[in-house]
Amino acid sequence: MSTEDAVTGRVVFVGAGPGDPDLITVRGLRELQQAQVILYDNLIDESLLEGLAAEQIYVGKEGDRHSLPQAELSQRLVELAKQGKRVVRLKGGDPSVFGRLAQEALVVAEQGIPFEIVPGVTSCVAGPAYAGIPVTHRGVADHFSVVTVHQSSDTTVFSIPPYNAKNTVVLMMSLGSVDAWQKQMLEMKYPAKLPVALITRAASATQRVLVTCLDEVDRAVAEASLESPTLAVVGKVVALREKLSWFDPALMASLDPEATTE
Ligand SMILES: C[S@@+](CC[C@H](N)C(=O)[O-])C[C@H]1O[C@@H](n2cnc3c(N)ncnc32)[C@H](O)[C@@H]1O
């Protein structure tokens, strides 16, 4: 710890990984153990926080628990660090992938607070992997795109790339807008029978994977009544799941008596 750090605290943005709390990095876990205050989101498996000495503050944006508005949250990070505290801002997956990292880090940086970023395993790659779907595969997919399809009042068209047979498209925050992204992809001439996998609560004891195709995805999702968090994988690599499916949520549930399966 430098002299500067001893006077002012610091903020460490840590990625927790998706689902299984074991997916946090060694470095991330060390930061949690050394933290004095941890501010954490709703996608965090709370078993990750058990037994830690740090004060723990929930700042998630879902559910009926109270959550801070973004500006207040960033200001809270600054105030805690100015009190000399070692603050961990714990986010699901990787903090820099649709994790509002920049909104918070910019405020912290503007105030001259030292900060670090500890990357995490992101659900956009790990989620498919837990479903037996590698996002690239030689000869099948030589690139992948990660797109938010979160529908807000100012979003009418998503940033979905033009169709390329060798691209895998991962759609994040995909559940609330299935009809809209399906329509847009079909209008963009994505093939109607292109395989689609919807992966819910990846890497957890309640993981679900629904495989369908683009022109049937709206009906399949309605019938399956999936829940958040869910991501969608669109592309030929989805077919690999037939041979590469490896993760057994029921087995994980049996190892964790507190987890429930459907
Ligand atoms: C606000 S984004 C945060 C992404 C996160 N920073 C990451 O790197 O994974 C939330 C979206 O990520 C996806 N997601 C996060 N965790 C997931 C999981 N365990 N299973 C499936 N999708 C997940 C879902 O699409 C969800 O709507």
Overview features:
262 residues; alpha/beta; Cobalt-precorrin-4 Transmethylase, domain 1; Methyltransferase, Cobalt-precorrin-4 Transmethylase, Domain 2; 2 domains; 5-stranded parallel β-sheet; 5-stranded mixed β-sheet; 9 helices; 10 strands; binds S-adenosylmethionine
**Number of self-contained structural domains:** 2
Output the CATH class name of the largest domain. Answer: Alpha Beta
Q: What proportion of the residues form beta strands (DSSP E)? A: 15-25%
| Poorly predicted segments | none
How many strands?
A: 10
Q: Pairing-aware structural class of the strands and helices? A: alpha/beta
Rg:
20 Å
CA-based shape: globular
CATH architecture group name of the largest domain = 2-Layer Sandwich
Q: List cofactors, ions and other ligands.
A: S-adenosylmethionine
Helix proportion range: 25-40%
The named CATH superfamily of the largest domain = Tetrapyrrole methylase, C-terminal domain
Question: How would you explain this protein's 3D organization?
Answer:
The protein is α/β, with parallel strands linked by helices and 262 residues long. 28% of the residues lie in helices and 20% in strands. The chain starts with a helix and ends in a 7-residue tail after the last helix. Strands 3-2-4-1-5 form a five-stranded parallel sheet, with helices on both faces. The mean pLDDT is 93. The chain folds into two domains: 119 residues, Cobalt-precorrin-4 Transmethylase, domain 1 (3-Layer(aba) Sandwich), CATH 3.40.1010.10; 121 residues, Tetrapyrrole methylase, C-terminal domain (Methyltransferase, Cobalt-precorrin-4 Transmethylase, Domain 2, 2-Layer Sandwich). Helix 3 crosses helix 4. The structure holds S-adenosylmethionine.
